[in-house]
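Open question from group meeting: does this chain pack into something compact, or does most of it stay loose? Before anyone orders reagents, we agreed to write out a predicted structure and look at it together. Recording both the input and the output here so the notebook holds the full record.
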Amino acid sequence: MTVDPMAISFVIPVFNVADYLDRCMSSVVAQNLPRGTYEVIVVDDGSTDDSLAIAQRWRDAYPEVRVVTQPNRGVSAARNVGLALATGAYIWFVDSDDFISRECVQTLLRHCLESNLDLVTFRGTRLKSGSPDSVTFDANLDLEDVQNGISYIAQYNYNNSSCLYLVRRHYIEGQSLTFKEGRRLEDGMLTLPLVSNAGKVAHYSSVAYAYVDNVETFTSSRSPSHAAKVIEDFRYAIGFFARFIEGQVRYANPSALYLQRVRSRQDSYTFFLCMRLLGFPMALRESLAIYDDLRLLGYLPLVHLNRAEYPGARYRLLTPLVNNRLAFKATASVLWALRPVWRSDPR
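Structure tokens returned:
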């Protein structure tokens, strides 16, 4: 395969991942790409462990590696810095505690270049910490149908994770797409317009990315201030989806199946927000006020949640509870009574 100069930029945000960064970097530089055809932009987001020193060792060993430092501003800001610095024809956002399949990039790039794709999608797999540091990539598959983003979502749906896309740099820049800084759920708010607005999208059905469960997710904290921030970010994301869908209906004339899929995704965010209203340490009247606001804005009841896409028992059992205000209020009241008093004025 002939690879054009600076064919791909890997953007890797780093924050306190000293135990995992070597594995990530090794998987990226082991792609057998000719030197000078790729760059690795590592953005250290104010790490307080040895992550920066590890990244600098890789920079010293590989001229393709560039290390940028900044005060801690969050993963979205780090990715945006890397995106602004990227010069490759395509971009791959790789999280620093994960890794990619060895020798997958040439195949993915070849399909992108031959089919002139705005983006290619591929499969990911989730591994537990301590699992083998490699996943098998099949380089002999055919690319699935090339189509525009709306048709692609209607047929295949899409993945929230920005790590499961190889994206043409000029496309993402032309769309003025960046990650929402200071917000959780940032991937979902980027990938929805990223895929929807693409002119040429295709899927390569092999595993190219490995997520490794190493750290607590942001929803695991029980502090009231953390809970308030998570709830605020869920509400922001739900509103983002609603506005985007409204714009698509007005200007893009999407298919009914496309709208069903993205509305189902919005409903899933609303469902998880309601679960957090039940489980987080907050005043009962506050959680009920947020719930009522969701109903007032038309985000409840959940009427678009696709059971085929969300087949688990919790959706089947808890969606009726979320949709019924009396049942939700009764459940919230019982759970509140069983929790310690978190607020000076709990009711």
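Observations to bring back to the group:
The first strand starts at residue 8 and ends at 14.
Residues 8-213 form a domain with the Spore Coat Polysaccharide Biosynthesis Protein SpsA; Chain A fold (CATH 3.90.550.10).
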